[in-house]
Amino acid sequence: MKKSFIYSGTLALLLMGSTAFAQSGRQNTALTTQTGVLNDARTTQKGGRQNEAYVSQEGILNSTEVTQKRGKRNVATVDQEGLINYAEVLQVRGRDNEAEVDQEGVVNAAYIEQRRGNNNDAEIDQDGVANMATITQRRGSHNDAEIDQEDEGNSAAIDQLGGEDNDADIEQEEDYNSAYILQTDGEDNDAEIDQDGDENFAIIVQPGGEDNEADIDQDGDYNMAGTLQMGEDNDADIEQDGDSNLAGIMQAGEDNDADIEQDGEGNMAVVMQLGEGNEADVRQDGLGHVAGVMQVGEDNEATVTQSGRMNSALVVQYGEDNLAEVDQWGRHGVATVLQEGVSNKAFVNQGGRHNTAGVMQSGVANHAVINQ
């Protein structure tokens, strides 16, 4: 009889897991529900009014820690199902902050940190195995961050350090994708990454500035893309559809616009813009194309269109109001356009195989056309 009582007590402890929470202030609410074996939940709320924390765990060895300090109406919600999931939420000196973590599967990990912020909102949703997500928001107001991951081995991180009204969103599907967004000391910057496939990598960096917008969309496997924006009202868009494509955009200045679209395999494109009002558009369709655009000055415009296989194009513009268009639809074509000055125009059209074209313009209002 005694032995049976001991076994029953031990089983009850295992099924119950551990729960601990401490509250101070007025009208704090903490609710923890655990079903399964060896789940652990801890909640701490201090100095707050109407703070709320909800934790619900099912399965085995799930662990949650929620800490809220000096906040009013802060809300943290964690829901975990499966095995060995870990979630941590920390909110300090905030008002109306919200953090939500929802994990299903096995060995997922999520971390949210919000400090000294007003009306910050962070959300992580993971479904699958061994996904990892991190959201860090510090010293900001009205910042918003959201991460959504599915299946296996995905990694995502959003860091918003300083600034106001910045918005970041990462969405990943399939397996082993990696994405990172960094926003520092800026206002109204917008960054979005969408990955669908396996082993894709994307990064967006917005250090300061205002009203910059970056968007990366990857559909396929082994694609890599990155953007860097410094200044105001810059717009960068990368879209990759296929496998093993590489794209990068760097913008410094104001009102620059860059678009890269890749459809195929093994394509590479890089755009660099320094100045104001520059526009660059790269379209690659096929296999093994290489394109580079560099713009320094104001109101320059460059367009590169590649189809077929293994074409290469380089456009460099220094000055103002220069226009360059390169269209390649064959194989192994090579085109180079160098412009220095004002209001120069160059057009290169290549079809067939193994064609080479070069244009160099210096001065004002020069015009060149090459058809191959």
Essential attributes:
16-stranded parallel β-sheet; 372 residues; mainly beta; 1 helix; elongated
Describe the structure.
It is a single chain. This protein is mainly β and 372 residues long. The chain has a domain at 2-211. The chain contains one helix and 32 strands. The chain has one helix at 2-16; strands spanning 18-26, 29-37, 40-49, 52-60, 63-69, 75-83, 86-92, 98-106, 109-115, 121-129, 132-138, 144-152, 155-161, 167-173, 178-187, 190-198, 201-210, 213-221, 224-232, 235-243, 246-254, 257-265, 268-276, 279-287, 290-298, 301-309, 312-320, 323-328, 334-342, 345-350, 356-364, 367-371. The chain has a 16-stranded parallel β-sheet with strand order 1-3-5-7-9-11-13-15-17-19-21-23-25-27-29-31, with no helix packed on it. The longest helix is centred in the N-terminal third of the chain and has 15 residues, at 2-16. The protein is elongated, with a radius of gyration of 26 Å. It starts with a helix and ends with a strand.
Adjacency order of strands in the biggest sheet: 1-3-5-7-9-11-13-15-17-19-21-23-25-27-29-31
CA-to-CA gap between the ends? 96 Å
On the 0-100 scale, what is the average pLDDT? Answer: 89
Please provide the count of β strands.
32
Q: How much helix, percentage-wise, in residues?
A: under 10%
Contiguous uncertain segments of 5+ residues: 1-15
In angstroms, what is the radius of gyration?
26 Å
Instruction: Characterize the biggest β-sheet.
Output: 16 strands, parallel
Secondary-structure-based class equals: mainly beta
Which range does the strand content fall in?
over 45%
Anisotropy-based shape: elongated
Number of helices: 1
